[in-house]
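Recap from last week: sequence in, structure out.
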Amino acid sequence: MSEEAPATPRTRISAKARSLRFDAGSLSLDLVATVGRRPSTPIERLDGPERLSEWCAGVGLVPRAEEDPAALLAALRELRDAAYDVVAAHLSGHAPRPGSVDLLNTLARVAPPAPRLRTDAQGRLKHGPVPHLTSAELLSAVARDLIAVMTDPRTRALLRTCDAEICRMVYLDTGPGTGRPRKWCSMERCGNSAKAARHRRRAVRP
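Predicted structure tokens:
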């Protein structure tokens, strides 16, 4: 009778691991970050209409009420896959799939929402999401953002992948210059966890 293979350790998926991220450094990378823990144990964070609304509000792009949430969600996921393919290919020194490039270029052809200032009743500048976007305008804004990141050599050089194995989030290292690339997407999330794990390993050494 053969011995059973040891069970693969499972990493606990907490509410924090499922939470949306808005700190990747750009609109398109915030979309890429709606899948966590790539590529080992992907976590879908954009998992329904409520999360779609939360993400749109978080990035300041709110679709029109008449837009179909299910269709927009599917289109955003398709765009997300293309964006991740392009970014990951660059970081690994490979060429992206032609279909990914074609999709980004196709979506970017639609005119994005025009920027505008908004004021409140007292005439003060008002912060908040830009309302009433068509799905095509929203998708164009994201696609154009990714294209801007990838075609600007200085911005492209800031692309990083979080060192934490259970994260691997792609982000722009736009923090204060220290002469060294930032290792983690966030010191509070992954940096402190990595340091704590390193401390525990040292503590158990004979």
